Amino acid sequence: MTNAKAGKARIGWIGIGxxxxxxxxxxxxxxxxxxxxxxxxxxxxxxxxxxxxxADSLADLAGCDIVFTMVxxxxxVHEVLLGPEGLLAQGRGKVPRMVVECSSISLEGSAELRAAxxxxxxxxxxxPVSGNAKVIKAGKLSFVTSGPRAVHDECLALLEMIAPAGxxxxxxxxxxxxxxxCHNVFLGVVTQSLAEITVLAEKAGLPRHAFLGFMNSSxxxxxxxRYKTPAFVNLDFKVTFTPKLLRKDMxxxxxxxxxxEVPLPLASITRDQIxxxxxxxxxxxxxxxxxxMQAKASGLELKSENVAVGDGLA
Length: 314
Known about the structure:
This protein is an alpha/beta fold and about 325 residues long. The protein has helices at about 20-30, 40-45, 75-80, 105-120, 135, 150-160, 175-205, 210-215, 225-235, 245-260, 265-280, 290-295, and strands at about 10-15, 35, 55, 65-70, 100, 125, 130, 140-145, 165-170.
């Protein structure tokens, strides 16, 4: 199958959470032959309006050419692919030629998964992403991939349908996993740092919107600082990524630091801040509630500024 034919492949999709729904939706709206499965079927059913078929069981995906997985943890990935009722369970007969695995998992877990799939004749592309549901809608999601270059090339047209911003191939094996782990460690550290300086500025008398407006227009501003500005200014913590998921990825980063003998002092402190936030009951809102914890530690009561500010995604 060449890139030109990628859109004609039979596509399977496992995992219709916040991310999976939007990612699979882009393939469905793009005219792909796609069948989707989710543990809670009702979450997948709205995709039928875009032409997706809704699977009753994972066995319904066995005849697909390429299957994408986008779930929360390695245990979830293992269950849906290799568990007793998983896609590649013994006795299925047919197996997909390729699995594009998009979840955030460890290097070791990814390598184990790749080896297990290979025994059944299925190739794997590790393909974690940078972004969230809103970023996907804006067409600014990006992939980082690793594994056989030929698999990346065959899947590229599909990856670009999901993420027009691009799919960076970084090499063989599990290199995409370490790229994603480093990305999310940076996510945590940058958010904690942004919370600290924002609280410092406000306690000194600066409105948050004025300070962040200055930062965003300076050389220190970024796509991320602009994106988080509405949450910081108006205290809108609608979840994009939960504190527990960020804690999981910080732990993966610290594990990698021990494995490769790299000290990560800022990551370690930030992980403790995230744990403090979780211990204080901040588990269902967005991880940017790090701002709230920083304000509490500083004796500052935050209030929404009710100022219209852009997120930079338009």
